[in-house]
Structures are given as structure tokens and as C-alpha cells.
Write a structure and sequence with these properties.
EC 3.4.21.-; transmembrane; Signal peptide peptidase SppA; 618 residues; membrane; alpha/beta; six-stranded parallel sheet; 47% helix; eight-stranded mixed sheet
Length: 618
Amino acid sequence: MRALWQIFATIFKFSWRIINFIRQAVCNLIFFFVLLIGFALYIQMQDSTIQPEKGALLVNLSGTVVDSLSSDSKLRQIGQELIGSNKDVQENSLFDIVKQIRQAKDDDKISGMVLSLRNFIGADQPSLRYIGKALKEFRDSGKPIYAIGDSYSQGQYYLASFANKIYLSPQGSVLLTGISTNNLYYKSLLDKLKVTTNIFRVGTYKSAVEPFIRDNMSPEARQSDSRWVNTLWSNYMTDVAANRNISIAELYPEPAQLIQQLKASDGDTATFALKNKLVDEIASRSAVEKILKETFGWDQQNKNYNFVSIYNYQVTEPDFERAKLPEIAVIFANGAIVDGPEMPGMVGGDTTAKQLRAARLNDKIKAIILRVNSPGGSVTASEMIRSEVQALKDAGKPVVVSMGGMAASGGYWISTPADYIISSPSTLTGSIGIFGVINTFENSLDAIGVHTDGVSTSPLADATITKALPPQFSEMMQLTIENGYKTFINLVAKSRHKTPAEVDSIAQGRVWIGSDAKTNGLVDQLGDFDDAIKKTAELAKLKDYEIKWTVTEPTVREILLGQVSASVNALLPETIKIELPAPLRQVAEDINKQPGFFGNMNDPGYRYIYCLSCSYTQ
């Protein structure tokens, strides 16, 4: 027995030493990682303070433009730099970009602008329009804008069209394809997996559930989507044609005519773009560099023309005296709405409700702009946010909703109590409908020989994903969904001064573009964020004020866990994805575009107000 205990003690000591070694190693790695992050932040801050001599503002945007940066985006990018990976798409703040351009307009050190957009992925149309407004102000001030590019995608070309002169490389092109929506449909897959999908919904046009029950788009959804897609494309062409001082037919000929004109140019897309006045000059990179050198002067040290990147151009902070002014708080609802705290790219019901409550209890804050750019999500989380917006209004603090690219379903639900709603003509909104989804796997389990059995006090208690749903439970779910729809249209009817019947006639899950939403009385005004600021100040009777931007700062724990997660996610999934055939990679990317709906369905009542069709590519 003693020998047995000695063996046990030896094993225990050896195991403890291993555990202790692992613990120390992990702690040291985390400590070292924190030091690296701190060092990288310090270096980044040092680099960002460099201000070169007089020259151009280089707008070399990389990645996407969003209303509000994800809480971990900057730290995640730094972490990726440290591990030598750059798999996540960079985010850029729409409002920071506009502030930088507007300051540069009046900055004596900035003599012009260069748009170099080859790494710019894109943004929703209202965001592009808002940046374009700032570019026009810069150009109208007398400072020239030059757009340079090997090729231009649709989003890149929209911004380039505001330039005084557009340069294109000899082998380049301007790729204008139009706007489309493409969603994946899973009915056949779910049938093969023997998954039973239980759908509860109200709304003829509520297409968010169609991927579960169809293999293609329904005629109703196609009809609804066609209207706003065509209007979006019309808005795009109208803006760009006006910027280039050409007709829409010249900008985007009919397909047959386009092919004929391309044949006349021997398939040379650069020559085609020049002949159609899409660009002003075909020039190589070295030729463009020579032009920019003559325009802005030469930086001998950096061997380039004089410029400051928009990523290093600092916006002057308000002086101390302005800090004493009353404030208008800007609170963001950017992304799918989920229950609980905020997650990257998502609107956390708890987080946003706390921000609204804090604004209500802050005496210095006199009014609030709720910036909504959301396709909706959880009913529970949306109602939590909506009730706090209502509490702000009841407290006498004006609330103006500024809609971004989309404010649909739950995005519209949270907007209903506002004193005033402003949307872009290209905002996607409405989608007033509700649905519930519960997948059960009794047939899947049966196919592999697994069965569920037991006793329950009532049929409702027997509802589980491993069994078929009891009819009583399904009936109860449908009743709660119908009640949710009545609640939704009553909220809209009260806020928009309509009858429930009038709201129902424009609801049923139908998506409206901003211009149609204004006609239907769902919004008060067509405009942008500047108009929202002006209206908020008017309602609050403020002549001088300060804008307070509400951002969510990650905790130390979130920073550490987020960086470790980013490191792993940046390396493993992309590595696996590279090994996939091209068609499967495309499917993986398409699935990844719908994370708010498929990956975060966490409403405790299984009820959702979400617009799946509001995503589009351009």
C-alpha cells in the first residue's frame, strides 16, 4: 500500500509540475502579448502625429466604411499585424472620414486631394453619398481632386466620379455591373439532413424565412426586391452621370450597345472607358506620379510626391471652452440586433439600452441622435432599445433617428418613438413583419438510431429540438407571432399618425427604399447626417452645442480574449478556406454575409424582426 501511495505521490508531483509550467507559460505569453499591443499602440500613435509639408491629402481607403467601428476592430487589426496576418477586413468610420475631408478643405497645408481607392472594398449607398458630399465641398473650394487607379469597381468609381480628373492605367477598366441581391436557400439541404423546420410568421413579403422553406425566391419577394434594387441603381447612375456631366446612356449603355462599343475598341476596356467619358486620361503609374509631382512637389526623403495619408491626418479636437457647451449625443445601432451585450458588428440590446439610459440621466446631454444602420434581429432586444428611446422622449429630450444604409424590421421598430426620422433616399427601411423559426432534429436522430422519450406534465413541457413540436406549442407560437405583428403595426400607427389598417397595407414585411418610405409616411424627411444634426439642434432649441460620440470601449478581459481569438481565427479558418475549391469558397463567403440572422438567433421567445433581403452587392 505504501508503495502504491509513493507511486501516486510521484505521479501527482510530476503532474503538478507540468500544470505549473503550463500556467506560467500561458501567463508569460499573455503578459508578453499585452506588452506587444501596448508597444504597437505607442508606435502607431507616434507615426500618426507626423504631418508633412504642404501637399495632397491622400485618400487611400482600405477595406469598408461603416457608421461605427466594431469595439474590437482597432485592437484586432493591431493583433493581426503582430502575428503577421491580415485576414479581417479593415473598418473605417464614415464620420471620421467626412470630418477629415472637411477639415482638409480649410487647411492651408492641404493643396489638393488624391483618391487612390484600389484597396477600398465599398460601403452602402447612403455612406458613399455622404462622403461624396464632403468631396464636392472640397472640390468646390477650389482645391483639385485627382482619382488614380489601375481599375475601378462600382463603389470606387462612385467616389472617383467627384474628382476633377480621373486617371486609368492602360490595362484598366471601370467595372459597372449594377446591383443585385443573392441569398442562399437551404430547403433541399435541410430535407436531406432530415431537419424539420417549424416556421411561424406574419407578412406576405417577410422573406427572411424563405431560405428554410424554399430553394428559390418567392414571387412576392422578387417583386418587392426588384423595386428597391432598381431604384438604388437609378440613384447611383443619376449621381455619377451628373458628376461626369454625361448622360445615363453614356455612363451605362444597354448591354447590346455596350458590347458593340467594346468591339469598336477591340476589347480594350481602358479605351472604352475613355471614349465613353468615364475617365479623363489613360496613364501609367509612372506617368501619373510625374503629374502629381509637378502638382504637389517632391518629397526627397520619401521619394514620392508631397502628401499626408488620411490615416495619418489628424482632426483638430474642440478647444476647452467648447467642452462646456450642451451636448447632442450620437448613439449607434449598427448591425443585427441581438440579446445581451454588444458583439463585434452587432447591436447588443443591453449595451444600447444602457447607452440610451445614460444619455437620459446625463443633464449635460440635451438631445440624442440615434444613428440606425440595422436589418433588425431579436424582438426582445429591439423592444428593450425602443423602450429606452421612448423613455428619452418622455423625459423631454428630443430624439432624432438618422437612418444609414438600412433601418429595416427591428431597425424600424427601435426608430418608432423618435420625434423625427430622417433617411437617405437610398436607405432600405420598413420590412414591418415578424417571424419565428424552430428547427427540430427528430428525423435526423432517428436516421442514426438515436431516439428521445420521457414524461412531461403537459404537451408544452415536451417541446424540445429532439422531438417533433407538440401541436399545442406550435399553435401558441403562431399566436405570439401574430400578437407581435399587431404590436409592431400599432407602434408604427401611433408614431406615424396612421390607423393600423393603413400601416398593414404598407407592411406585411415589404421593404421600402427611402424615397418610397417618405411617400408612404414612414419617415419625415429625406436627408443625411448633417440634416439630422440640424433638426436635433432645432428641436432642442440649441444654437451652440457639442457633438458627443458614444462608443463602446472593450474591457481588458475582452481585449485579451479578443486578441487570442483573433489570432486563432485569422490563421485557421482562412487556411482551411484556401483549401476549398473556388465554388465552395464562394458559398462559405456568402454564408458569412448572413451572420446576424443565422449565427445569432438568440431571442428567448424565438421571435425575430429581421430583413434578410436588405443586403446587396454593388
